[in-house]
Amino acid sequence: MARKPILSPTRLSTYLACPVKYRWTFVDPRGRVLQRAKWYYSFGSSLHRTLEELYRRDLSGVPIKEAVAETLEENWISAGFHSPEEAEEALAEGRGILTTFVETEIQKPEGVEVLDVERRIQKDMGEYILLGVVDRINRRPDGSIEIVDYKSLRSETKPEDVRNDLAMMCYQILVRSLFEAPRYYSTIVSLRTNHTATVEVSQEEVDLFTEDLNALATEILNREFHEIEPRWKPLCADCDFLPLCKRHEDFHPPSG
Ligand code: SF4
Questions:
Q1: 161, 158, 181: which is closest to 169 by C-alpha?
Q2: Does the Cβ of 26 fall within 6 Å of ligand 1?
Q3: Residue 123 located in a structural domain
Q4: I want to staple 113 with a disulfide (CB 3.0 to 4.6 A). Which of 11, 85, 139, 150 is the partner?
């Protein structure tokens, strides 16, 4: 039997940003050679991997500042930076961000149980498999579950941003399939400023989102990607696939 297609928050957001970009990234192998490493992905991955390791160590008995610096250096990815100096500056910024974050975390009242970090979860949605990697899953003292996501470049997140975040809603579907709880929360931590926004998410909201998600998945899975014509949009200016789209006769970048 054929394996079901996999959809993840990254795939879904890529499609919503530009279906042609989805084609070059996930469907048509001609796009692969044009994909370049991005400093912001390297920066984000380095921070995520460091936090994963620190949480897995439980932070107990670890000299915090030294552990952060050493762990970040071990997990540092410098691909995509324009120069070694730029990478070094980003490493120093990452060190500062994570030190502040960890110091704040250990000062929080005890009682929150970290159930898992960087947890890869998949759920059979019928026509497709929904796959996601959740940064952190907490069990709060009242038994509720909190899904935590880190945004490495963001300075602030509003509660409505958390509620409308596609990835967070996917994580709600995924986490609910594994962990039962009386209530569920979503939290986004803007690592640059240590700003946190949390919202409670109801089952009704998840049900409504699931309907929209299934409709979007059906559209993606039935799309004839090679027939879509690229159209210029602001996103194109920094897109890796511009050379491929430019070959299309009706694709017209603005002049000047
Ligand atoms: S260049 Fe523009 S149309 Fe082409 S894939 Fe990139 S964003 Fe989409």
A1: 161
A2: no
A3: yes
A4: 139
Count of the separate structural domains present in the chain = 1
User: Which residue has its alpha carbon closest to ligand 1 atom 7?
Assistant: 236
190 assigned to some structural domain? yes
Query: What is the domain extent for residue 156?
Result: 1-7+113-224
Sequential DSSP letters for 63-88:
-HHHHHHHHHHHH---TT-SSHHHHH
Residue 18 Cβ inside 6 Å of ligand 1? The answer reads: yes
> Is position 15 within any domain?
no
| 231 falls within a domain | no
Atom of ligand 1 nearest to the CA of 230: 3
Q: How far apart are CA 154 and CA 103, in angstroms?
A: 19
Residue 220 · residue 25 · CB < 8 Å = no
Task: Please work out whether the CB of residue 23 comes within 6 Å of at least one atom of ligand 1.
Answer: no
Residue 184 parent element (H or E): strand 184-190
